[in-house]
Amino acid sequence: AAHHRHAHEHLFRKGLNDTAAVCTPGCTTIWKTMTGEPTLVAPSTTKTQTQILTVTPSPKTSTQAPPPPPPTQAPPPPPATTEIVVVPTPVVTTCPTPGTYTFPATTVTIQKTTTVCDATSTKVPSGVHTIGGVTTVVVTATTVTCPVATIHTSGSVTTSTIVQTTYVCPSAGTYTIAPITTTVSEETVIVYPTPATYSPGTYTAPQQVVTVTKTGFVYICPLTSKGLSTSTTPVSTSTPAPATTTVKTQAPPPPPVKTTEAPKKSEAPKSSQAPSPPNNNGGDLVSNNDHLGMTYTPYVGTTGQCKTADQVDSDISAIKNAGFSVVRVYSTDCNTLENVGNACSKYGMKMIAGVFVKSSGCSIDTPDIKEQVDKLVAWGKWDLVVLLVVGNEAIMNNYCSPQQLKQLITDVKGKCSGKFNGKVTISETLNIWQREDVSSNLCSHVDITGANIHPYFNNGVAPSEAGQFVRGQMSILQKICNKSVITLEVGWPSGGQDNGLAVVGLDAQSIAVKSIREQCGNEVIFFSLEDDRWKQKGSCGCEDSWGLGRAFNINTSS
Q: What biological processes does GO assign it (predicted)?
Protein backbone atom coordinates (compact mmCIF):
# COMPACT_ATOMS: atom_id res chain seq x y z
CA ALA A 1 0.00 0.00 0.00
CA ALA A 2 1.16 3.51 -0.63
CA HIS A 3 1.72 5.48 2.66
CA HIS A 4 -0.67 7.69 3.23
CA ARG A 5 2.17 8.89 3.75
CA HIS A 6 2.10 9.99 4.65
CA ALA A 7 5.79 9.05 2.42
CA HIS A 8 6.65 13.74 1.09
CA GLU A 9 8.85 14.07 -1.89
CA HIS A 10 9.55 17.41 -3.51
CA LEU A 11 6.91 18.52 -5.98
CA PHE A 12 7.18 16.67 -9.32
CA ARG A 13 10.23 14.73 -8.10
CA LYS A 14 10.66 10.98 -8.55
CA GLY A 15 13.49 8.87 -7.19
CA LEU A 16 13.93 6.83 -10.38
CA ASN A 17 12.36 8.09 -13.56
CA ASP A 18 10.97 6.09 -16.43
CA THR A 19 13.21 6.76 -19.42
CA ALA A 20 10.18 6.70 -21.67
CA ALA A 21 8.94 9.82 -19.90
CA VAL A 22 11.90 11.95 -21.01
CA CYS A 23 10.83 14.88 -23.18
CA THR A 24 11.24 14.36 -26.91
CA PRO A 25 13.07 16.90 -29.14
CA GLY A 26 11.30 20.21 -29.25
CA CYS A 27 11.59 21.09 -25.56
CA THR A 28 13.96 23.94 -24.76
CA THR A 29 15.96 24.15 -21.54
CA ILE A 30 17.28 27.53 -20.35
CA TRP A 31 19.80 27.26 -17.49
CA LYS A 32 20.37 29.86 -14.78
CA THR A 33 22.65 29.41 -11.81
CA MET A 34 20.86 29.48 -8.44
CA THR A 35 22.51 31.19 -5.46
CA GLY A 36 23.82 28.68 -2.92
CA GLU A 37 26.89 26.77 -1.88
CA PRO A 38 27.72 23.64 -3.89
CA THR A 39 28.15 20.36 -2.05
CA LEU A 40 30.72 17.66 -2.70
CA VAL A 41 29.99 13.98 -3.09
CA ALA A 42 33.08 11.78 -3.17
CA PRO A 43 32.73 9.03 -5.82
CA SER A 44 32.87 5.47 -4.60
CA THR A 45 36.12 3.73 -5.53
CA THR A 46 35.10 0.23 -4.56
CA LYS A 47 32.36 -2.17 -5.50
CA THR A 48 29.06 -1.34 -3.80
CA GLN A 49 26.84 -4.10 -2.50
CA THR A 50 23.76 -4.42 -0.33
CA GLN A 51 24.15 -5.26 3.33
CA ILE A 52 22.46 -5.84 6.66
CA LEU A 53 23.22 -3.16 9.22
CA THR A 54 22.32 -2.25 12.78
CA VAL A 55 21.98 1.43 13.74
CA THR A 56 22.09 2.49 17.40
CA PRO A 57 21.49 6.23 18.00
CA SER A 58 22.97 7.94 21.01
CA PRO A 59 20.49 9.53 23.42
CA LYS A 60 21.61 13.14 22.89
CA THR A 61 23.25 15.39 20.36
CA SER A 62 24.99 18.71 20.88
CA THR A 63 23.35 21.89 19.69
CA GLN A 64 26.47 23.92 18.96
CA ALA A 65 29.19 21.53 17.86
CA PRO A 66 32.30 22.28 15.77
CA PRO A 67 32.67 20.38 12.48
CA PRO A 68 32.82 16.69 13.45
CA PRO A 69 36.01 14.64 13.02
CA PRO A 70 36.14 11.80 10.49
CA PRO A 71 34.17 8.75 11.64
CA THR A 72 36.05 6.20 13.70
CA GLN A 73 35.65 2.44 13.76
CA ALA A 74 36.62 -0.57 15.76
CA PRO A 75 39.62 -2.44 14.33
CA PRO A 76 40.34 -4.15 12.01
CA PRO A 77 38.52 -2.07 9.32
CA PRO A 78 40.26 1.10 8.12
CA PRO A 79 38.61 4.50 8.72
CA ALA A 80 35.63 5.46 6.59
CA THR A 81 35.95 8.48 4.31
CA THR A 82 33.30 11.16 4.80
CA GLU A 83 32.55 14.48 3.11
CA ILE A 84 31.36 17.00 5.75
CA VAL A 85 29.06 19.64 4.29
CA VAL A 86 28.11 23.05 5.62
CA VAL A 87 24.42 22.80 4.84
CA PRO A 88 22.02 20.20 6.24
CA THR A 89 22.39 17.69 3.41
CA PRO A 90 22.80 14.01 4.24
CA VAL A 91 26.42 12.95 4.82
CA VAL A 92 27.48 10.26 2.34
CA THR A 93 30.14 7.85 3.61
CA THR A 94 31.84 4.88 1.95
CA CYS A 95 32.78 2.09 4.37
CA PRO A 96 35.54 0.18 2.52
CA THR A 97 35.48 -3.10 4.47
CA PRO A 98 33.18 -4.98 6.88
CA GLY A 99 33.30 -3.84 10.50
CA THR A 100 31.75 -1.50 13.06
CA TYR A 101 31.87 2.21 12.27
CA THR A 102 31.04 5.10 14.61
CA PHE A 103 29.77 8.32 13.03
CA PRO A 104 29.98 11.30 15.42
CA ALA A 105 27.10 13.66 16.05
CA THR A 106 26.80 16.53 13.58
CA THR A 107 24.97 19.84 14.04
CA VAL A 108 24.42 22.47 11.33
CA THR A 109 22.64 25.82 11.73
CA ILE A 110 21.36 27.84 8.76
CA GLN A 111 19.96 31.35 8.89
CA LYS A 112 17.86 31.54 5.72
CA THR A 113 15.87 29.24 3.47
CA THR A 114 18.36 27.30 1.35
CA THR A 115 18.02 24.86 -1.54
CA VAL A 116 20.85 22.31 -1.64
CA CYS A 117 21.71 18.91 -3.07
CA ASP A 118 20.13 16.05 -1.19
CA ALA A 119 21.46 12.50 -1.60
CA THR A 120 19.32 9.66 -2.92
CA SER A 121 20.38 6.09 -3.63
CA THR A 122 18.86 3.26 -5.65
CA LYS A 123 20.00 -0.26 -6.54
CA VAL A 124 20.11 -0.96 -10.29
CA PRO A 125 21.15 -3.92 -12.46
CA SER A 126 23.87 -3.68 -15.11
CA GLY A 127 23.07 -1.48 -18.09
CA VAL A 128 22.19 2.12 -18.92
CA HIS A 129 19.95 3.92 -16.42
CA THR A 130 18.24 7.31 -16.33
CA ILE A 131 17.87 8.61 -12.79
CA GLY A 132 17.14 11.83 -10.93
CA GLY A 133 15.70 14.89 -12.57
CA VAL A 134 12.36 16.50 -11.86
CA THR A 135 9.24 14.98 -13.44
CA THR A 136 6.16 17.04 -14.20
CA VAL A 137 2.83 16.33 -15.88
CA VAL A 138 1.25 19.19 -17.85
CA VAL A 139 -2.14 19.35 -19.54
CA THR A 140 -1.21 22.05 -22.05
CA ALA A 141 1.85 23.90 -23.37
CA THR A 142 3.55 25.13 -20.21
CA THR A 143 6.75 26.76 -19.00
CA VAL A 144 8.01 25.17 -15.78
CA THR A 145 10.59 26.82 -13.53
CA CYS A 146 12.20 24.71 -10.81
CA PRO A 147 15.53 23.88 -9.12
CA VAL A 148 17.36 20.78 -10.38
CA ALA A 149 20.49 18.97 -9.19
CA THR A 150 23.40 18.52 -11.61
CA ILE A 151 26.73 16.68 -11.44
CA HIS A 152 30.10 17.94 -12.68
CA THR A 153 33.23 15.76 -12.53
CA SER A 154 36.80 17.08 -12.50
CA GLY A 155 39.44 14.40 -12.02
CA SER A 156 38.49 12.39 -8.95
CA VAL A 157 36.14 15.04 -7.52
CA THR A 158 32.43 15.01 -8.30
CA THR A 159 30.58 18.25 -7.53
CA SER A 160 26.80 18.36 -7.17
CA THR A 161 25.21 21.78 -7.63
CA ILE A 162 21.71 23.24 -7.72
CA VAL A 163 20.69 25.31 -10.73
CA GLN A 164 17.42 27.00 -11.55
CA THR A 165 16.02 25.91 -14.89
CA THR A 166 13.17 27.16 -17.03
CA TYR A 167 11.78 24.25 -19.05
CA VAL A 168 9.46 24.81 -22.01
CA CYS A 169 7.05 21.92 -22.62
CA PRO A 170 5.41 22.41 -26.04
CA SER A 171 2.29 20.31 -25.42
CA ALA A 172 0.44 18.18 -22.89
CA GLY A 173 2.38 15.21 -21.54
CA THR A 174 4.89 13.96 -18.99
CA TYR A 175 8.32 15.57 -18.99
CA THR A 176 11.49 14.79 -17.05
CA ILE A 177 13.70 17.81 -16.52
CA ALA A 178 17.48 17.34 -16.33
CA PRO A 179 17.68 13.58 -15.73
CA ILE A 180 21.06 11.92 -15.18
CA THR A 181 22.11 9.01 -17.42
CA THR A 182 24.70 6.52 -16.18
CA THR A 183 26.04 3.12 -17.26
CA VAL A 184 27.03 0.35 -14.82
CA SER A 185 28.61 -3.00 -15.61
CA GLU A 186 27.03 -4.93 -12.73
CA GLU A 187 24.35 -4.58 -10.06
CA THR A 188 25.24 -1.40 -8.17
CA VAL A 189 23.87 1.07 -5.64
CA ILE A 190 23.93 4.49 -7.33
CA VAL A 191 24.05 7.65 -5.20
CA TYR A 192 22.84 10.75 -7.01
CA PRO A 193 21.77 14.31 -6.07
CA THR A 194 18.23 15.67 -5.85
CA PRO A 195 17.04 19.15 -4.80
CA ALA A 196 16.11 19.69 -1.15
CA THR A 197 14.90 22.91 0.45
CA TYR A 198 15.61 23.68 4.13
CA SER A 199 14.02 26.36 6.30
CA PRO A 200 16.06 28.33 8.87
CA GLY A 201 16.96 26.35 11.97
CA THR A 202 19.34 23.84 13.53
CA TYR A 203 19.72 20.41 11.94
CA THR A 204 21.15 17.49 13.87
CA ALA A 205 22.40 13.98 13.12
CA PRO A 206 22.90 11.90 16.29
CA GLN A 207 25.94 9.70 16.78
CA GLN A 208 25.45 6.45 14.89
CA VAL A 209 27.11 3.06 15.37
CA VAL A 210 26.81 1.05 12.15
CA THR A 211 27.74 -2.59 11.64
CA VAL A 212 28.67 -3.23 8.00
CA THR A 213 28.82 -6.77 6.62
CA LYS A 214 29.77 -6.05 2.99
CA THR A 215 32.65 -4.25 1.29
CA GLY A 216 32.18 -0.83 -0.26
CA PHE A 217 28.96 -0.09 1.60
CA VAL A 218 27.60 3.46 1.06
CA TYR A 219 26.02 4.89 4.22
CA ILE A 220 23.85 8.04 4.06
CA CYS A 221 23.41 9.76 7.43
CA PRO A 222 20.52 12.27 7.30
CA LEU A 223 20.23 15.39 9.43
CA THR A 224 16.92 16.11 11.09
CA SER A 225 15.47 19.54 11.79
CA LYS A 226 15.51 20.58 15.44
CA GLY A 227 14.31 23.81 17.00
CA LEU A 228 13.07 25.37 13.77
CA SER A 229 11.37 28.71 13.97
CA THR A 230 7.59 28.62 13.97
CA SER A 231 7.07 30.45 10.71
CA THR A 232 4.53 29.90 7.97
CA THR A 233 6.36 26.86 6.63
CA PRO A 234 5.54 23.41 8.00
CA VAL A 235 8.31 21.77 10.01
CA SER A 236 9.66 18.65 8.34
CA THR A 237 9.00 15.61 10.50
CA SER A 238 7.80 12.89 8.21
CA THR A 239 4.08 13.43 8.96
CA PRO A 240 2.23 14.14 8.88
CA ALA A 241 0.29 16.09 7.03
CA PRO A 242 -1.74 13.84 5.49
CA ALA A 243 3.05 13.45 5.25
CA THR A 244 4.94 12.09 4.37
CA THR A 245 4.33 11.05 4.46
CA THR A 246 2.94 9.03 4.67
CA VAL A 247 4.72 7.11 1.72
CA LYS A 248 2.32 5.50 5.52
CA THR A 249 2.77 6.58 2.67
CA GLN A 250 2.70 8.12 3.32
CA ALA A 251 5.18 14.75 -1.11
CA PRO A 252 5.85 18.24 -0.16
CA PRO A 253 4.72 21.51 -1.63
CA PRO A 254 6.78 23.42 -4.16
CA PRO A 255 10.19 24.76 -3.10
CA PRO A 256 11.04 26.70 -1.02
CA VAL A 257 8.26 25.44 1.23
CA LYS A 258 9.41 22.54 3.41
CA THR A 259 6.72 20.35 4.85
CA THR A 260 6.15 17.18 6.73
CA GLU A 261 5.27 14.01 5.10
CA ALA A 262 1.59 13.62 4.64
CA PRO A 263 0.17 10.19 4.91
CA LYS A 264 -0.82 8.43 1.70
CA LYS A 265 -3.86 6.29 1.36
CA SER A 266 -3.35 2.64 2.17
CA GLU A 267 -4.48 -0.18 -0.03
CA ALA A 268 -6.98 -2.29 1.83
CA PRO A 269 -6.63 -6.07 1.51
CA LYS A 270 -9.55 -7.99 0.08
CA SER A 271 -11.93 -9.65 2.48
CA SER A 272 -13.92 -12.76 1.73
CA GLN A 273 -15.68 -12.84 5.09
CA ALA A 274 -19.20 -11.58 5.52
CA PRO A 275 -19.25 -8.49 7.70
CA SER A 276 -20.55 -8.65 11.23
CA PRO A 277 -20.61 -5.75 13.69
CA PRO A 278 -17.57 -5.84 16.00
CA ASN A 279 -17.97 -5.34 19.73
CA ASN A 280 -16.89 -1.76 20.17
CA ASN A 281 -16.65 -0.32 23.65
CA GLY A 282 -14.69 2.72 22.58
CA GLY A 283 -16.42 5.27 24.82
CA ASP A 284 -15.56 8.66 23.33
CA LEU A 285 -14.47 6.81 20.18
CA VAL A 286 -18.06 5.99 19.22
CA SER A 287 -20.44 8.82 18.34
CA ASN A 288 -24.21 9.06 18.59
CA ASN A 289 -24.49 10.03 14.91
CA ASP A 290 -23.11 8.61 11.65
CA HIS A 291 -19.81 10.54 11.50
CA LEU A 292 -17.47 10.32 14.47
CA GLY A 293 -14.37 12.20 13.38
CA MET A 294 -12.29 13.88 10.69
CA THR A 295 -8.52 13.89 10.10
CA TYR A 296 -7.01 17.35 10.13
CA THR A 297 -3.64 18.79 9.15
CA PRO A 298 -3.10 22.55 9.50
CA TYR A 299 -1.73 23.06 5.98
CA VAL A 300 -3.09 25.40 3.32
CA GLY A 301 -4.62 23.09 0.72
CA THR A 302 -3.05 24.82 -2.28
CA THR A 303 0.47 25.49 -0.99
CA GLY A 304 1.17 23.19 1.95
CA GLN A 305 2.18 26.12 4.14
CA CYS A 306 1.12 26.28 7.78
CA LYS A 307 -2.30 27.76 8.43
CA THR A 308 -2.67 30.63 10.87
CA ALA A 309 -4.36 30.19 14.23
CA ASP A 310 -7.43 32.02 12.88
CA GLN A 311 -7.63 29.71 9.86
CA VAL A 312 -7.38 26.65 12.10
CA ASP A 313 -10.07 28.06 14.38
CA SER A 314 -12.36 28.56 11.38
CA ASP A 315 -11.78 24.99 10.16
CA ILE A 316 -12.42 23.37 13.55
CA SER A 317 -15.57 25.45 13.96
CA ALA A 318 -16.81 24.23 10.57
CA ILE A 319 -16.00 20.60 11.44
CA LYS A 320 -17.92 20.93 14.71
CA ASN A 321 -20.90 22.54 12.97
CA ALA A 322 -20.99 19.60 10.54
CA GLY A 323 -21.65 17.29 13.49
CA PHE A 324 -18.22 15.76 14.09
CA SER A 325 -17.06 15.23 17.66
CA VAL A 326 -13.40 14.20 17.19
CA VAL A 327 -10.45 15.56 15.18
CA ARG A 328 -7.44 13.37 14.41
CA VAL A 329 -4.04 15.08 14.06
CA TYR A 330 -0.83 13.31 13.09
CA SER A 331 2.01 15.24 14.70
CA THR A 332 2.99 18.46 16.45
CA ASP A 333 4.30 20.61 13.59
CA CYS A 334 2.75 23.93 12.50
CA ASN A 335 1.73 24.61 16.13
CA THR A 336 -0.81 21.80 15.82
CA LEU A 337 -1.21 21.21 19.54
CA GLU A 338 -1.61 24.88 20.38
CA ASN A 339 -3.83 25.96 17.48
CA VAL A 340 -5.95 22.83 17.03
CA GLY A 341 -6.06 22.24 20.78
CA ASN A 342 -7.28 25.76 21.53
CA ALA A 343 -9.96 25.52 18.84
CA CYS A 344 -11.13 22.09 20.04
CA SER A 345 -11.35 23.39 23.60
CA LYS A 346 -13.31 26.43 22.38
CA TYR A 347 -15.83 24.41 20.35
CA GLY A 348 -16.15 21.38 22.61
CA MET A 349 -14.38 18.80 20.45
CA LYS A 350 -12.04 15.95 21.38
CA MET A 351 -8.69 15.12 19.77
CA ILE A 352 -6.84 12.03 18.62
CA ALA A 353 -3.19 13.05 19.00
CA GLY A 354 -0.29 11.45 17.17
CA VAL A 355 3.43 10.75 17.22
CA PHE A 356 4.52 10.49 13.59
CA VAL A 357 7.28 8.05 12.66
CA LYS A 358 9.27 8.32 9.45
CA SER A 359 12.39 6.83 7.91
CA SER A 360 14.76 8.71 10.25
CA GLY A 361 14.23 6.21 13.05
CA CYS A 362 11.83 4.40 15.37
CA SER A 363 13.33 5.20 18.77
CA ILE A 364 12.25 7.59 21.50
CA ASP A 365 15.71 9.15 21.00
CA THR A 366 15.20 9.74 17.26
CA PRO A 367 15.37 13.56 17.12
CA ASP A 368 12.05 14.21 15.37
CA ILE A 369 10.22 11.69 17.59
CA LYS A 370 11.80 13.12 20.74
CA GLU A 371 10.77 16.62 19.65
CA GLN A 372 7.15 15.53 19.17
CA VAL A 373 6.97 13.68 22.50
CA ASP A 374 8.58 16.58 24.37
CA LYS A 375 5.98 18.94 22.89
CA LEU A 376 3.15 16.59 23.87
CA VAL A 377 4.41 16.30 27.44
CA ALA A 378 4.86 20.07 27.78
CA TRP A 379 1.49 20.84 26.16
CA GLY A 380 -0.56 19.54 29.04
CA LYS A 381 -4.10 19.67 27.61
CA TRP A 382 -4.58 15.92 27.88
CA ASP A 383 -8.22 16.35 28.89
CA LEU A 384 -8.92 16.94 25.19
CA VAL A 385 -7.25 13.70 24.06
CA VAL A 386 -9.29 10.50 23.75
CA LEU A 387 -6.61 8.49 21.92
CA LEU A 388 -2.87 8.69 21.23
CA VAL A 389 -1.67 7.08 17.98
CA VAL A 390 2.02 6.11 17.84
CA GLY A 391 3.03 5.77 14.20
CA ASN A 392 0.95 5.98 11.04
CA GLU A 393 1.64 2.87 8.91
CA ALA A 394 5.18 2.78 10.31
CA ILE A 395 5.46 -1.00 9.96
CA MET A 396 3.95 -1.02 6.48
CA ASN A 397 6.53 1.54 5.34
CA ASN A 398 9.38 -0.41 6.98
CA TYR A 399 10.10 2.50 9.33
CA CYS A 400 9.68 0.21 12.35
CA SER A 401 9.80 -3.48 13.08
CA PRO A 402 6.98 -4.76 15.30
CA GLN A 403 9.49 -5.08 18.14
CA GLN A 404 10.73 -1.51 17.67
CA LEU A 405 7.20 -0.10 17.58
CA LYS A 406 6.33 -2.08 20.70
CA GLN A 407 9.29 -0.51 22.51
CA LEU A 408 8.40 2.96 21.21
CA ILE A 409 4.87 2.62 22.57
CA THR A 410 6.30 1.64 25.96
CA ASP A 411 8.68 4.60 25.94
CA VAL A 412 6.02 7.10 24.85
CA LYS A 413 3.69 5.86 27.59
CA GLY A 414 6.53 6.27 30.07
CA LYS A 415 7.20 9.86 28.99
CA CYS A 416 3.50 10.72 29.26
CA SER A 417 2.95 8.86 32.53
CA GLY A 418 1.11 10.94 35.07
CA LYS A 419 -0.18 13.28 32.37
CA PHE A 420 -2.05 10.97 29.98
CA ASN A 421 -3.53 7.67 31.06
CA GLY A 422 -5.92 7.22 28.15
CA LYS A 423 -6.00 4.82 25.23
CA VAL A 424 -2.93 4.27 23.02
CA THR A 425 -2.81 2.49 19.66
CA ILE A 426 -1.05 2.32 16.30
CA SER A 427 -2.44 2.79 12.80
CA GLU A 428 -1.75 0.02 10.27
CA THR A 429 -3.67 -1.73 7.50
CA LEU A 430 -5.47 -5.05 8.00
CA ASN A 431 -2.84 -7.10 6.18
CA ILE A 432 -0.16 -5.77 8.56
CA TRP A 433 -2.26 -6.59 11.62
CA GLN A 434 -2.76 -10.12 10.26
CA ARG A 435 0.99 -10.81 10.45
CA GLU A 436 1.81 -13.05 13.40
CA ASP A 437 4.85 -10.99 14.39
CA VAL A 438 2.68 -7.87 14.53
CA SER A 439 -0.24 -9.26 16.52
CA SER A 440 2.02 -11.17 18.95
CA ASN A 441 4.07 -8.07 19.75
CA LEU A 442 1.47 -5.31 19.65
CA CYS A 443 -1.94 -6.65 20.71
CA SER A 444 -0.85 -6.53 24.35
CA HIS A 445 0.50 -2.99 23.96
CA VAL A 446 -2.53 -1.26 22.40
CA ASP A 447 -5.80 -0.45 24.13
CA ILE A 448 -7.84 -0.48 20.94
CA THR A 449 -7.03 -1.85 17.47
CA GLY A 450 -6.38 1.08 15.13
CA ALA A 451 -6.39 0.70 11.35
CA ASN A 452 -6.49 2.67 8.11
CA ILE A 453 -9.06 1.24 5.68
CA HIS A 454 -9.42 2.64 2.15
CA PRO A 455 -11.87 0.60 0.04
CA TYR A 456 -10.96 2.52 -3.15
CA PHE A 457 -7.74 0.50 -3.40
CA ASN A 458 -9.72 -2.74 -3.74
CA ASN A 459 -10.76 -2.91 -7.40
CA GLY A 460 -13.76 -5.09 -6.62
CA VAL A 461 -15.46 -2.52 -4.39
CA ALA A 462 -17.90 -0.08 -5.97
CA PRO A 463 -18.63 3.21 -4.17
CA SER A 464 -22.02 1.92 -3.02
CA GLU A 465 -20.29 -1.05 -1.34
CA ALA A 466 -17.63 0.97 0.49
CA GLY A 467 -19.38 0.86 3.86
CA GLN A 468 -19.97 -2.88 3.74
CA PHE A 469 -16.29 -3.39 2.88
CA VAL A 470 -15.11 -1.25 5.81
CA ARG A 471 -17.47 -3.01 8.21
CA GLY A 472 -16.12 -6.38 7.03
CA GLN A 473 -12.52 -5.30 7.59
CA MET A 474 -13.36 -4.02 11.08
CA SER A 475 -14.98 -7.35 11.93
CA ILE A 476 -11.79 -9.20 10.97
CA LEU A 477 -9.66 -6.73 12.93
CA GLN A 478 -11.74 -7.21 16.07
CA LYS A 479 -10.86 -10.91 16.13
CA ILE A 480 -7.09 -10.34 15.85
CA CYS A 481 -6.59 -8.74 19.26
CA ASN A 482 -10.09 -9.35 20.65
CA LYS A 483 -10.33 -5.63 21.29
CA SER A 484 -12.47 -2.75 20.11
CA VAL A 485 -11.64 -1.37 16.66
CA ILE A 486 -11.38 2.18 15.38
CA THR A 487 -10.85 3.05 11.74
CA LEU A 488 -8.41 5.97 11.84
CA GLU A 489 -8.61 6.79 8.12
CA VAL A 490 -11.35 6.06 5.62
CA GLY A 491 -12.36 8.01 2.56
CA TRP A 492 -12.79 8.04 -1.21
CA PRO A 493 -11.04 10.21 -3.83
CA SER A 494 -12.94 12.65 -6.02
CA GLY A 495 -10.25 12.57 -8.72
CA GLY A 496 -7.62 10.29 -10.19
CA GLN A 497 -7.81 6.97 -11.97
CA ASP A 498 -10.67 4.48 -11.78
CA ASN A 499 -9.63 1.23 -10.08
CA GLY A 500 -11.92 -1.43 -11.52
CA LEU A 501 -15.31 -1.02 -9.88
CA ALA A 502 -13.82 1.64 -7.61
CA VAL A 503 -14.52 4.62 -9.83
CA VAL A 504 -13.62 8.18 -8.85
CA GLY A 505 -15.46 11.49 -9.09
CA LEU A 506 -17.53 13.79 -6.92
CA ASP A 507 -20.66 11.68 -7.36
CA ALA A 508 -18.76 8.47 -6.61
CA GLN A 509 -17.23 10.08 -3.53
CA SER A 510 -20.64 11.15 -2.23
CA ILE A 511 -22.05 7.65 -2.76
CA ALA A 512 -19.09 6.05 -0.98
CA VAL A 513 -19.30 8.43 1.98
CA LYS A 514 -23.04 7.80 2.29
CA SER A 515 -22.41 4.05 2.32
CA ILE A 516 -19.71 4.34 4.99
CA ARG A 517 -21.87 6.59 7.16
CA GLU A 518 -24.74 4.12 7.00
CA GLN A 519 -22.63 1.07 7.86
CA CYS A 520 -20.08 2.29 10.41
CA GLY A 521 -19.82 6.09 10.37
CA ASN A 522 -20.04 6.35 14.16
CA GLU A 523 -16.80 4.34 14.55
CA VAL A 524 -14.54 5.84 11.87
CA ILE A 525 -12.36 8.89 11.25
CA PHE A 526 -12.97 10.26 7.76
CA PHE A 527 -9.98 11.23 5.60
CA SER A 528 -9.72 14.13 5.01
CA LEU A 529 -11.12 17.65 5.36
CA GLU A 530 -9.89 19.18 2.10
CA ASP A 531 -7.97 18.39 -1.07
CA ASP A 532 -4.19 18.69 -0.73
CA ARG A 533 -3.34 20.23 -4.10
CA TRP A 534 0.29 20.68 -3.03
CA LYS A 535 0.84 16.91 -3.03
CA GLN A 536 2.06 14.77 -5.91
CA LYS A 537 -0.81 12.88 -7.52
CA GLY A 538 0.90 9.51 -7.03
CA SER A 539 0.48 6.38 -9.15
CA CYS A 540 -3.29 6.47 -8.66
CA GLY A 541 -3.47 10.10 -9.77
CA CYS A 542 -5.55 10.66 -6.65
CA GLU A 543 -3.27 11.60 -3.73
CA ASP A 544 -4.35 15.24 -3.86
CA SER A 545 -8.10 14.57 -4.13
CA TRP A 546 -9.30 13.10 -0.83
CA GLY A 547 -11.00 16.19 0.54
CA LEU A 548 -14.47 15.42 1.91
CA GLY A 549 -15.55 18.96 2.68
CA ARG A 550 -18.09 18.92 -0.16
CA ALA A 551 -19.55 15.58 0.96
CA PHE A 552 -20.23 17.05 4.42
CA ASN A 553 -21.08 20.60 3.25
CA ILE A 554 -18.03 22.07 5.00
CA ASN A 555 -16.39 25.27 3.78
CA THR A 556 -12.71 25.42 4.75
CA SER A 557 -10.35 28.34 5.31
CA SER A 558 -8.16 27.46 2.28
A: cell wall organization
